[in-house]
Amino acid sequence: MDTMRERFAAVTSRLLDEDPRLAVVLADIGVDGFRRAAERHPNRVVNVGIREQLLIGVGGGLALTGMRPVLHTFASFLVERPFEQVKLDFGHQGVGGVLVSAGGSYDHPAAGFTHMAPGDVALLDTLDGWTVQVPGHPDEAEVLLRHACAAGDDKVYVRLSTQANARPRPVTGSGFLPVRHGRPGAPAVVAVGPLLDSVLTATEGLDVTVLYAATVRPFDGATLRAAVEGADAAEVVLVEPYLAGTSTASVAEALVDVPHRVLGLGTARAETRRYGTVEEHLVDHGLDPRSLRERITAFVGRADRSGSA
Amino acid sequence: MTITTTPRPFPPAPGGGPGYADLPALMSLMTGDEKHDVAATSVLDALWVLYDRVLRISPDTVDAPDRDRFLLSKGHGPMAYYAVLAAKGFVPVEWLSGFGSHDSPLGHHPDRTLVPGVEIGSGSLGHGLPLAVGTVLGLRARGVADARVWVLTGDAESDEGSNHEAIEFAGARGLDRLHVLVVDNSSATHTTPGGLAARFEVAGWSTETVDGRDHEALYAAYTRPHPGRPRAVVARVEPKPGARPASARPASAHRGA
């Protein structure tokens, strides 16, 4: 199976043929995937070199002329390094674009913390109006990328990963998808993108509702509310492939008038200062199926005891 | 690629409108200073010559795809900019007296979504030039052949690393629709002698340094041909009070294309 990044290059290259409004801007990362597209569309595939502030500024300038810019590099260099450009050159100018990242939180552990961006979604949460897509499979990445490119002048962040679920889900570009149904009032576990398979394994046999979130912003509060309806005190577990607790504020907003408890699972704030593999880092962060089951059952178990007291 | 450097006729502001001599009065509507000294505003002359004689934009063409673009990157102290926009009919003169108030569209840094004719919201330094590079690339991709893009920066703003990224890229790509007007009032810290124009020259730009109060010199510099290269015009003006005078620094070479 191809990777999400390979799919990104293939799909976006085809979209360049179809949509004259589309332009791709790169900063020396991912250039090979667009080599043929650059030959066909030399004015709409631009590599600015290792200049990430310029990458974002050029995207804003393209959007000011009515183009739909697609900007790509590793998440650290796309969102964190030029963050003020993301804030001002899109949001403040009142224009949109598509940011497509790779690398995420632990995709290249051997590269170390310089190539990890566990805080990217939390950072974007400080800005208004960004749609955030976290596909869990290359097929989903294709669907979500097509949505992003066609989304008018919206501001869209697509977070690609090397980690993927075994099979794709029918994502639509918005909202959460219930994939396992607990009894009414059962705890809800929100599994984001490539962590779905681990969550399904971890919650096997537990009475929980599992919601799959490939679109995390806007946060689908309506589906979450419906999932926990009937509980005396709603219980929500978030399992996110980035900074733990990133979406707890969204849960609090969705359940503002409902008594609730929330457990936010994700990557740790502290640097691990370890290299190795993706699997080893998932264990470090407690995001492997065994750790997830322990943490989820401990949270739900406490609720059971307090409920029976 | 050839460039049309002689300004084409473009619809003037309706009714002619105020002229250069009226700008101090327009600025006094914002500052409350009836004796406002033109010399205190570093960008006034450079802006006036650009809007009066070079840019192909008017209140009727603020949304025209083939208009020239002017991006004020140095968004600080925009009174001269607003005065010029009012003189040219982009904004009503009545707006000026509300400058900076809650109900006014005219803030201490301009907002493109509030002011007709303003191409970018600015205030944070180092954003205008990268946005201008993207604008040039976007116009090319859209097949708009004639529109030119101007961006105004300050000499201190040129220290921002984002500008260095843009200067190098634009030079290497030969973006000859791109024009930078650097108003140099000696406000930069840690300057290199003769540095401003040299930063552009070394990246392959066409450059010229002129007296920022000399309208004919500015016009000549603005309109000199520069085939295949982006163009930087450094307009020197008197330094801000307390700054090192421009005359104390080695002169930059005057160069054409």
UniProtKB/TrEMBL annotation, chain A:
Residues 2-168 form the Transketolase-like pyrimidine-binding domain. The lineage of its organism: Bacteria, Bacillati, Actinomycetota, Actinomycetes, Kitasatosporales. SMART domains: Transket_pyr (SM00861). One of its GO terms (molecular function) is magnesium ion binding. This is Transketolase. It holds the Pfam family Transket_pyr. It comes from Streptomyces taklimakanensis. InterPro entries: PDH/Transketolase, THDP-binding, Transketo_C/PFOR_II, Transketolase-like_Pyr-bd.
Automatic annotation (TrEMBL), chain B:
Its cofactor is thiamine diphosphate. It comes from the Bacteria. It comes from Streptomyces taklimakanensis. Residues 36-224 form the Transketolase N-terminal domain. This is Transketolase. One of its GO terms (molecular function) is magnesium ion binding. SUPFAM superfamilies: Thiamin diphosphate-binding fold (THDP-binding) (SSF52518). Residues 243-257 have a biased composition (Low complexity).
